[in-house]
Design a protein that fits this description.
Strand content: 15-25%
CATH topology of the largest domain: Ribosomal Protein S5, domain 2
Distance between the termini: 10 Å
Shape: globular
Number of domains: 2
Oligomer: single chain
Bound molecules: alpha-D-galactopyranose
Number of strands: 12
Amino acid sequence: MSPQSTLEVHRNRFGADGVSYQAPGRVNLIGEHTDTSEGFVMPAALDLRTISVLSPRSDSTANVYSVNFAEQVSLDLQHLPCRPRGHWSDYPTSVLWTLEQRGIHLDGFDLTLSGNVPLGSGLSSSASVEVAVAVAALAHAGTALPKPEIAKICQFSENHFVGAQSGIMDPFTSCCGVDHHALLIDCRSLDYEALPLPSEVLLVICNSMVKHSLAGGGEYNARRAEVQAGVRILQQHCPDIRALRDVTEAQLRRCQGEMPENIFRRCLHVVTENARVLQAAEALRSGDFQQFGRIMHEAHVSMRDNYAASCVETDLLVELAARQPGCFGARITGGGFGGCTVNLVAAEHSDKFVHNVRAGYEEATGIQAEIYRSRASAGAGPLLVGQT
Ligand code: GLA
């Protein structure tokens, strides 16, 4: 739904003009499951996003209406729930709860949310909702915070309210995205560099339509726990190690005999993935897309075989992509266990790419993949009325 229509929905429902904000989803080019090890990632914000429209009320109620779910919840800001209930409203509620924890006082408001980031597809629909709520609520509270701080608030909300031990990458990208650029983020220092994405290559995202969910933890938290077990073993040899960010492949291999195979493999993925992100950044800086694509492929194999976070459908999408002319590289993107693949495709080949991958996927699985061509977009902020 367009910003204009969302504003109209808000006006019709709540009888007031609101102020509009937007927060994008993201696609991760490379650097999967490294943010939680204080490592490196290279995502880009998408032009798929959540729009939030807020107008003040004179009491202490927060009414939140979701256009996508066609449902409204009412929250008493003085007695916010402190537990998730497995409902879409957990995400907005979690942010209001965190703001309250941080001593940021909110008077009542009406809020309308609409979005086009596909849910549970590895494109950070949850971070985009959280950030869209956070920027609207902070403006309403009259509190200006640096964007990385807003990202930390959203990560805290997801970790401590929703229950997913997710990292900083998704909210950070949603907050700090740069038009036509990928972000090389150091998830330890939160320093980042915007790397230009040339217009002759496109980011094509293929949705396997197999849903994953990070809410409540599940496989995502289980992998994190395996990595933490690996870190504890490594620390017995090198107490200075704080996270896998501090570990080289050689160091890890020296401890292999002391680790169960699954723990070694999860750690091997993270350690080698960190190195791949830095190599991929070099390839992007020098315009070497062939090399970038090769590294993407290695990253996919590692996600599949070592981190065990791919699935048959995303593997198939990657295989189909690799056969297409003009495709430099393809890999599963995001948390995994379903969701999307990201593909780097020469612009002049992209129509054929989309057609062939869609047809091949449908023939093999009977599933119609959704395929998005997105440009890298700017991060969250206010939207001017009438802006599209
Ligand atoms: C999810 C999490 C991120 C990150 C990715 C995997 O998107 O929210 O923090 O860990 O998975 O790279």
